[in-house]
């Protein structure tokens, strides 16, 4: 899938400057650009605090930031829904293909059984087939009992063969009919998923257009203010996590976790593209699933499935290689590096980067390798320890030239 056409250089710079919106603090569908949504108290880590007193102006920097956060939150929810449908579609296509092969084989066996049954029917009609009445009479009237017994055995064998042919015909017909129904159902589901994926693609693109429209009307001063508010909010949230002991010691990853970290760090600087799983671009769960795949451990594709199916661990027991999942709907995910840092693909318009863990409000964490022991003598890569965990440089060095889209 290709992205939207390039925009003017100013709009691209505007997108890059304001796409540093990791503290996506609002739940629910995207809010229209003309109305500032109310913040979700459960998901406000990293977002600028609302001052006491009268409600802020709808065009204030804080209100603009909340609006952009809501739009990106909605876009990411739509992205992960698209990813889940894409995975379902792939599985359904594979099942339909398998059922098609099995149905072809079943129909070939059924044709063979029908041919055998037809041959038996012709033999019976012509009087020369097994187990006819005349043959039974000849056995009963035979002068030689031993010869009669031999003939009787042959007749029973032939009758059993005929019965087996009829049974094989019936079973083959039932199997072919069942497989045909299953194949039809798989194709129907494939068509429904294809239509659903198209609707979800439209939803993502619509959310991103709303963001672009809002960004296009902002001045450079407004964009700089949004940057400062976001960085300050992320730094404050990170310090709060550290001060209350919510983040444990860095520790060491397993050997597989070390490989996942190395892979994730090698992707730093590559663009976010929704639905992408590399090697040239990633979305959030595309990065984490590929990191662990390259570490030799297959994990679910989407952030929701990673949260649902992988073992949970508390944040104060994190070890490098764990996955940190964000927001109440588990719509964002990052790879924990240690020292309070994650590597993540933040959102359209940005690139894969190392960030403070609290750049988004965490829901919890999961561990893809719960049974593996930490490696001994582990030395953290330089990218992890370059800044302290409470650094205010939340996502410094973000790409200002990347356009949102897919």
TrEMBL record:
The family note in this entry says: Belongs to the peptidase C40 family.
Which residue stretches, if any, does this entry annotate as coiled coil? 65-123
Which residue ranges does the record annotate as region Disordered?
Answer: 29-60, 361-406
Q: Which domain of life is it from?
A: Bacteria
Record-linked Pfam families = NLPC_P60
Q: Which PANTHER family match?
A: NLP_P60 DOMAIN-CONTAINING PROTEIN-RELATED, PEPTIDOGLYCAN DL-ENDOPEPTIDASE CWLO
Domain NlpC/P60 stretches: 254-375
Which SUPFAM superfamilies would you find in this protein's record? Cysteine proteinases (SSF54001)
Keyword annotations for this protein, in alphabetical order, are: Coiled coil, Hydrolase, Protease, Signal, Thiol protease
Question: Does the UniProt entry include the keyword Signal?
Answer: yes
Q: Where would one find the signal peptide in this protein?
A: 1-35
What InterPro entries is this protein classified in?
NLP_P60_dom, Papain-like_cys_pep_sf, PG_Endopeptidase_C40
Q: Where is the composition biased (Low complexity)?
A: 388-406
**What is the name of the protein in this document?**
NlpC/P60 family protein
């Amino acid at each position: 899938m290709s992205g939207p056409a390039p925009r003017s250089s100013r709009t691209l710079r505007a997108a890059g400057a304001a796409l540093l919106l990791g503290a996506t603090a609002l739940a629910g569908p995207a809010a229209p650009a003309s109305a500032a949504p109310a913040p979700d108290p459960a998901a406000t880590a990293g977002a600028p605090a609302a001052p006491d007193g009268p409600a802020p102006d709808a065009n204030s920097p804080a209100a603009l930031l909340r609006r952009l956060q809501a739009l990106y939150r909605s876009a990411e929810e739509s992205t992960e829904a698209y990813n889940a449908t894409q995975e379902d579609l792939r599985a359904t296509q594979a099942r339909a293909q398998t059922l098609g092969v099995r149905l072809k084989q079943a129909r070939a066996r059924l044709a063979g059984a029908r041919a055998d049954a037809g041959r038996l029917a012709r033999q019976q009609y012509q009087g020369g087939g097994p187990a006819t009445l005349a043959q039974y009479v000849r056995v009963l009237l035979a002068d030689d009992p031993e010869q009669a017994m031999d003939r009787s055995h042959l007749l029973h064998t032939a009758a059993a063969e005929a019965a087996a042919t009829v049974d094989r015909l019936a079973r083959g017909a039932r199997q072919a009919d069942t497989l045909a129904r299953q194949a039809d159902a798989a194709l129907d589901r494939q068509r429904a998923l294809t239509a659903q994926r198209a609707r979800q693609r439209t939803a993502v693109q619509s959310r991103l257009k709303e963001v672009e429209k809002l960004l296009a009307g902002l001045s450079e001063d407004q964009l700089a203010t949004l940057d400062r508010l976001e960085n300050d909010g992320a730094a404050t949230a990170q310090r709060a996590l550290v001060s209350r002991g919510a983040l444990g010691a860095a520790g060491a990853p397993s050997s597989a976790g070390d490989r996942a970290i190395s892979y994730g760090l090698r992707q730093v600087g590559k663009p976010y593209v929704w639905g992408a799983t590399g090697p040239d671009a990633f979305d959030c769960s595309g990065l984490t699933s590929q990191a662990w795949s390259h570490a030799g451990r297959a994990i679910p594709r989407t952030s929701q499935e990673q949260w649902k199916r992988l073992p949970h661990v508390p944040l104060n027991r994190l070890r490098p290689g764990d996955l940190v999942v964000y927001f109440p709907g588990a719509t964002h995910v990052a790879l924990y590096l240690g020292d309070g840092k994650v590597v993540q693909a933040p959102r359209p318009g940005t690139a894969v980067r190392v960030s403070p863990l609290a750049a988004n409000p965490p829901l919890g964490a999961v561990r893809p390798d719960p049974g593996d022991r930490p490696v001994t003598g582990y030395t953290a890569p330089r990218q992890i320890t370059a800044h302290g965990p409470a650094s205010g440089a939340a996502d410094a060095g973000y790409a200002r030239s990347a356009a949102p889209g897919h």
